UniProtKB/TrEMBL annotation:
Top-level EC class: transferase
Membrane spanning stretches: 29-62, 149-170
UniProt keyword terms in alphabetical order: ATP-binding, Kinase, Membrane, Nucleotide-binding, Phosphoprotein, Transferase, Transmembrane, Transmembrane helix, Two-component regulatory system
Annotated ranges, domain Signal transduction histidine kinase subgroup 3 dimerisation and phosphoacceptor: 218-285
Name assigned to this protein: histidine kinase
Domain Putative sensor per the UniProt entry, residue ranges: 37-189
Lineage, uppermost ranks: Bacteria, Bacillati, Actinomycetota, Actinomycetes, Kitasatosporales
Catalytic function, reaction form: ATP + protein L-histidine = ADP + protein N-phospho-L-histidine
Length: 413
């Protein structure tokens, strides 16, 4: 069974790579199609100045022809270099002269294209020679001996075998030319890969910043809607219930109990809604800045918090929001896991040569230490929130404490 499987795979491979296969003819057609695009460069054999002028003048057209050849015959897309200005304008000409992509494309047209055209011509000769040799008996039968000019009487068998071997080998030079041409086109005809990656990284960074800003604006809108809508209705409901309890003393005890219970639940709902609103986006952060918002966090914390803020000008709204929620989550982690007696939060602004000003947050507690991001203590959420704005976080938490969480956020967002 194994032998039959190996034979079947061998037959399949031969059928897929033989001179009659689609693979062979596709590569051959691709190699031969390089000849017309190489003709302007071939004029260099007659006149070097004419060669340079033609290639330089026809560079854009030759580029389109080559891209069409790759796409039509191989299904391979060679991206075109995006230009900010059309070539017919002075800015467009200057842009192309300064661009390394322009000179890489001309290097392809002046060096690679002529070589590929020569290879395509040789490929035609290989196929023609193989066909002529393999069919030598046909030529000998069709032409009389005195007109055949073959002079190969007695050597027809050898010529036939040589022609057949040449036909069997013909697809492989075409495949090699196809691979070399594809690699050269990807390097020279397309955009610079390193710069393209840089551009994509910049686009992704801008898109992410836009998403963060949009998410922050949406949180603010929801906070305003809740504060001005549902929260105000609950406050009005609680006030009406309180007035009813105070002004209707003659109600039956059952009715008073119902009003008292509704009043209590309305007040609890208001408190829960206040917590939800602060979790979305505290209004004090937008109105009075990070210092006031962190002061409110420190006042509501279940343990003493020493807060120091020294940051000069306010950072961007996105960074302010991230900083606020980082401190909020850090204090929640301290209260839940650290068994600490006290905590300190320091916020300051520091210069950085690579990324501009940085907003540095340092949260220190005197708890038991041993904080592990893999232990489900909320530190994973801190890392993700800080990473959303390209910030950094460092956690130093030896067993026995203290735990120091240092966060640096770029102020440019």
């Amino acid at each position: 069974m194994a032998t039959r499987g190996a034979l079947r795979r061998t037959y399949t491979w031969i059928a897929a790579h033989g001179p009659w296969s689609a693979w062979a003819w596709r590569n051959t057609a691709f190699a031969v199609a390089a000849i017309p695009a190489a003709l302007p460069a071939g004029l260099g054999l007659l006149s070097v100045p004419l060669w340079l002028v033609l290639v330089l003048a026809l560079g854009p057209l030759l580029g389109r022809l080559q891209r069409s050849r790759f796409w039509s015959l191989l299904g391979l897309e060679v991206p075109e270099v995006v230009r900010a200005h059309p070539w017919s304008t002075p800015k467009g000409v200057a842009e192309r002269l300064r661009s390394d992509a322009t000179w890489r494309q001309y290097a392809y047209h002046l060096l690679v294209s002529p070589l590929m055209g020569l290879g395509g011509a040789l490929q035609v000769l290989v196929w023609a020679g193989g066909f002529a040799g393999a069919s030598v008996y046909g030529w000998a039968w069709a032409l009389p001996p005195d007109r055949s000019g073959l002079g190969l009487a007695g050597a027809y068998d050898l010529v036939t075998v040589a022609g057949a071997l040449l036909l069997l080998a013909a697809p492989w030079p075409a495949a090699l030319l196809t691979r070399l041409d594809s690699a050269a086109a990807a390097t020279l005809l397309g955009p610079n890969r390193a710069r393209e990656l840089e551009r994509r990284v910049e686009d992704l960074a801008e898109s992410r910043a836009g998403v963060l800003d949009a998410a922050d604006l949406e949180r603010r809108r929801i906070e305003r809607d809740l504060h001005d809508g549902a929260q105000q209705r609950l406050v009005s409901l609680a006030m009406n219930l309180g007035i009813a309890r105070a002004t209707l003393p003659d109600l039956p005890p059952e009715a008073k109990a119902v009003i008292d219970e509704a009043h209590r639940e309305a007040k609890e709902a208001i408190e829960e809604l206040n917590s939800l609103v602060r979790g979305l986006h505290p209004a004090v952060l937008e109105d009075r800045g990070l210092d006031a918002a962190l002061s409110g966090l420190a006042a509501r914390a279940p343990l003493p918090v020493e807060l120091t803020v020294d940051m000069g000008t306010r950072p961007g709204p996105t960074v302010e929001a991230v900083a606020y929620f980082v401190v909020s989550e850090a204090l929640a982690n301290v209260a839940k896991h650290a068994r600490a007696k006290a905590c300190s939060v320091r916020v300051d602004r520091m210069p950085d040569r690579r990324r501009g000003d940085l907003l540095r947050l340092v949260v220190t507690d005197d708890g038991v230490g041993g904080a592990d991001p893999a232990g489900g203590t909320g530190l994973v959420g801190l890392r993700k929130r800080v990473g959303s704005v390209d910030g950094t976080i460092m956690i130093n938490s030896p067993l026995g404490g203290p735990t120091v969480v240092t966060v640096e956020l770029p102020c440019g967002l």
